[in-house]
Amino acid sequence: MDWQLFALDVLSASPSFSRRFAATASQRPARTFVADLLGEEHPRRDDAVLLTSELAGNVIRHAVQREFLVSLAFATGGVLVAVRDCGSSRIPYPRQAEEEAPSGRGLALVDTLAARWGFHRSPGSTSVWFQLATPSPGLGGDG
User: Is 122 helix (H, G, I), strand (E, B) or coil?
Assistant: First the structure.
């Protein structure tokens, strides 16, 4: 399956929600947006908020434009979140951060916690997305 096309299809499907944020020093507004959409009872809320924060932080650190877009879609069996910048030419990839390094672990976290993730480049923007599987009721597990 082409997961990039899957992600784009899910994001274009309903219900999905998007909001623009200023690329300032805080990811808090993007985290709050995702947390509020998922609600306190969503089993993957904390993971979604953490990973959104990591992707938003990457955009803020490497911003070319002064805003970014966060989109969330409810997919069958889970949730999909994408963070799109408007100008970065960098290709996202997980790095092996030095033990004492204060940053550099964001995409490694995404790779560890998400069922799948990827990115899509288009002229003038890059979208990095992740999908979190939601455990079936009564089965427990981490998705």
Answer: strand
Q: What are the distances in angstroms from CA 91 to CA 46, 96, 113, 121?
A: 26, 15, 20, 8
Q: Give percent of the chain above pLDDT 90.
A: 36
Rounded distance, CA 141 to CA 78, Å? 14
Number of Cβ within a 10 Å radius of residue 86 = 17
Among 94, 92, 119, 107, CA closest to 4:
119
Which residue carries 């979140």 as its tokens?
81
Q: Which sign does the torsion angle of CA 57, 26, 100, 50 carry?
A: negative
92-98 long-range contacts (CB < 8 A, ≥24 apart) are 92/58, 92/119, 92/126, 92/128
Residues in the chain where the model's pLDDT stays below 70: 1-14, 63, 87-105, 136-143
Question: Residue 54 and residue 116: Cα distance in Å, rounded?
Answer: 16
For residue 58, what pLDDT is reported? Answer: 84
